[in-house]
Amino acid sequence: MAVSEEVLREKYRELSDEKLLRLASQDAARLRPEALSLLQQELATRGLAALVEERITAQLRTLTASELTAYCNLLQAQSCPSCWSSTHPLNATIVRHTASFFIATTYKEQFAVACPTCLDKLNRKASRSSALLGWWAIPWGIIRTTQSLLANRRMAQTNHSPRANDSLKAFVSENIEAIDAANTTAYGLQALLVSLLIAVNRTNTPLTRQ
User: Fold this and answer.
1) CA distance 119 to 197
2) Model confidence over 10-56: pLDDT tens digits?
3) Paired residues of 100 in beta bridges
4) Cβ contacts of residue 133 below 8 Å, gap of 6+?
5) Model pTM?
6) Where are the domains of the chain?
7) Residues with Cβ < 8 Å from 95, sequence gap 6 or more?
8) CA-CA distance, 189 to 187, in Å (whole number)?
9) Hey, how many other C-beta atoms are within 10 angstroms of the C-beta on 123?
10) Distance of CA 97 to the CA centre of its chain
11) Which positions of the chain have pLDDT values less than 70?
């Protein structure tokens, strides 16, 4: 059931300036139109609208097909953040990993951009780990492990596409502001891709518990 406008208005009034600005900066595109309108009204009332106007606009921006292709080409032309090769165009994958401990199962999905060979390695590593550690809880261990193995296999089929796959296109569409900001410095895009890879390889990344 959708939250009423009055409830939303009161919720925004109760947020601190910091939380209100964070919501507008990071989640404006996920809000319903009426919720976004109320958020903008509260920002204007507090004199904060100008601080996040450009970020909201960037989040709501819809790329044309040619613009989307241009942004994807920009990322695909970077060196691989894993092996630093520039031999093949980069692409993207979503890595799924499952691990079970007695009755608890943990499952995570992580996004990475790299060369086809390194993407294959990420998918295989996640599948091997899930196959070894994922089954040992009922019912979620079996369910999530099966999901991880099938999803990793499916994602690997697009790793070697010379054109941007759907995962890369989705990332570009949802992160125009971050890409534009990174592209203002000489090595900004490379740093952005490295940060994504670090998140995948970080062993203490929070997991979703079932």
Assistant:
1) 10
2) 999 999 999 999 898 888 888 888 999 999 999 999 999 998 888 88
3) 105
4) 98, 99, 100
5) 0.74
6) 5-60, 66-209
7) 109, 110, 111, 112, 122, 123, 126, 152, 155, 200
8) 6
9) 23
10) 16
11) 1-2, 202-210
Cβ proximity of 81 and 114 under 8 Å: yes
Q: Is 84 exposed, middle or buried (0-12, 13-18, 19+ CB in 10 A)?
A: exposed
CA–CA separation, 64 and 155 (whole Å):
25
pLDDT at 210: 42
Tell me, what amino acid is at 110? Q
Contact present, 74 and 102 (Cβ < 8 Å): no
**Distance linking the first and last C-alpha atoms of the chain:** 24
- The tokens of 57 are what? 């606009």
Q: Which DSSP string do the residues of the chain spell out, in sequence order?
A: -PPPHHHHHHHHHHS-HHHHHHHHHHHGGGS-HHHHHHHHHHHHHTT-HHHHHHHHHHHH----HHHHHHHHHHHHTSPPTTT---SS--EEEEEEEEEEETTEEEEEEEEEEE-HHHHHHHHHHHHHHHHHHSSSSTTHHHHHHHHHHHHHHHHHTTTT-SS--HHHHHHHHH-HHHHHHHTTSTTHHHHHHHHHHHHHH-TT---EE-
SS (H, E, C) 125-143: HHHHHHHHHCCCCCCHHHH
pLDDT score of 101: 87
